[in-house]
Amino acid sequence: MNKVLIAGASGIVGSATAQLLSGKGWEVHGLARKPQPIPGMRPVAADLMDPASLASALANLQPTHIVISSWLRQATEAENIRVNSAMVRNLLDAVSPSGSVRHVALVTGLKHYLGPFEAYGKGALPQTPFREEQARLDIDNFYYAQEDEVFAAAARDGFTWSIHRPHTIVGKAVGNAMNMGTTLAVYASICRATGRPFRFPGVAAQWDSLTDMTDARLLARHLEWASTTPTAANEGFNVVNGDVFRWSWMWGRIADWFGIEAVAFDGVVRPLELQMADDAVLWRDIAARHGLAEPDITRLASPWHTDADLGRPIEVVTDMSKSRRLGFLDYQPTDDAFFDLFQQLRADKLIP
Prior knowledge:
This protein is α/β, with parallel strands linked by helices. It has helices at residues 12-23, 51-58, 77-95, 111-114, 142-157, 180-194, 204-208, 216-228, 247-258, 272-275, 280-290, 303-310, 321-326, 334-347, and strands spanning 3-7, 27-32, 41-45, 65-68, 103-107, 160-166, 169-170, 198-199, 210-211, 214-215, 235-239, 245-246, 262-263. It is 42% helix and 14% strand.
């Protein structure tokens, strides 16, 4: 039997992957400091920064596959590297004695090409569409440090690996630090409740240029594919839905779903962090009025991350030719990914 250990099982990627694999008969174990209940998943409570807790929690698990989709944001990139590389190293050291691991899949992202938050979208960047064969940027990046930990453990223990680089991920998770879909759903709900204009928070380059995104469900299928397909072993992959769009089109699609009017971008940048800075009390009132499950807006919305994505000064489009050539042909329209998420959020009483 395939037995997977998912680090970061409470997040957008981890929860989607747990649901997919448990539905396909895998034995699924989800590791988090405080695992959330997911049907078909067996929780494993441990701290990736605490080797002793990992050794105790994983002593008899013997997973055949590992998915790593966890990170902790730090104040500087040097700290990001120290903490997030240690998390990967500690996990792989903890499972090493069993000799059971056949494949490790690490989820990173397009900061592989765009640079870390301290230098995001600045300096000399590779041409779009981003391709996996493009060299690393000549700058410190915790994604590179995480990759290097996987490579070193694979050389030691003999498992295969895959690296997965999604663009902005659309999916459900409460308390997630990077969650554009739910952030926009909360913002649109506030605009609908108050009559506030639904204004694009980004820059002209994102409003006018082509872009793409990644549905968490498609990413989960890509993780399963790469973990079980011999020809996909020991490769880094871009992972996106397969369509491209302009925010000048998508903004209206999202507004239509919520029954509000999209305000055309007028060239003035209005970051969501500023637009939503005083909305905590307002959201509590909306939650009370509609009987919502989460009155704390900070558990749902991450305006800083949405601002980072929609404030990039360059076009961001991703090439997936490597996966296509090797047989992964899944496709997901991004507007439908948003709509599916919004419907789920409404069904789960997270938005009105």
